[in-house]
Amino acid sequence: MPVGEFDVLDGLDSIPGRLAEAAATLRLVDHHVHGCFVDPIDRGAFEESFNEASTDPIPPFMTQFDSQPGFAFRRWCAPLLGVERHAPADDYWAARASLAPADLDRRLLPPAAVDHWIMDTGFSLRPITTPVEMAAESGGRTSEIVRLELLAEELLAAGIAPAEFADAFRARIAAAAGEAVGFKTIVAYRSGFDIDWAPPGDAAVAIAFAHWAAAEQAKPRLADPVLEAFVVHTALATGRPLQVHVGFGDRDLDLHRTNPMLLLPLLRRPEAARAPIMLLHCYPYHREAGYLAQAFDNVYFDVGLGVNYVGAQSRQVIAESLELAPFAKQLYSSDAFGLPELHLVGSVLWRRGMAAVLARWVAEGEWSEADACRVLQMIGSENARRVYGV
Amino acid sequence: MPVGEFDVLDGLDSIPGRLAEAAATLRLVDHHVHGCFVDPIDRGAFEESFNEASTDPIPPFMTQFDSQPGFAFRRWCAPLLGVERHAPADDYWAARASLAPADLDRRLLPPAAVDHWIMDTGFSLRPITTPVEMAAESGGRTSEIVRLELLAEELLAAGIAPAEFADAFRARIAAAAGEAVGFKTIVAYRSGFDIDWAPPGDAAVAIAFAHWAAAEQAKPRLADPVLEAFVVHTALATGRPLQVHVGFGDRDLDLHRTNPMLLLPLLRRPEAARAPIMLLHCYPYHREAGYLAQAFDNVYFDVGLGVNYVGAQSRQVIAESLELAPFAKQLYSSDAFGLPELHLVGSVLWRRGMAAVLARWVAEGEWSEADACRVLQMIGSENARRVYGV
Amino acid sequence: MPVGEFDVLDGLDSIPGRLAEAAATLRLVDHHVHGCFVDPIDRGAFEESFNEASTDPIPPFMTQFDSQPGFAFRRWCAPLLGVERHAPADDYWAARASLAPADLDRRLLPPAAVDHWIMDTGFSLRPITTPVEMAAESGGRTSEIVRLELLAEELLAAGIAPAEFADAFRARIAAAAGEAVGFKTIVAYRSGFDIDWAPPGDAAVAIAFAHWAAAEQAKPRLADPVLEAFVVHTALATGRPLQVHVGFGDRDLDLHRTNPMLLLPLLRRPEAARAPIMLLHCYPYHREAGYLAQAFDNVYFDVGLGVNYVGAQSRQVIAESLELAPFAKQLYSSDAFGLPELHLVGSVLWRRGMAAVLARWVAEGEWSEADACRVLQMIGSENARRVYGV
Question: Where's the Amidohydrolase-related domain (chains A, B, C) (predicted)?
Answer without folding.
Answer: 204-389
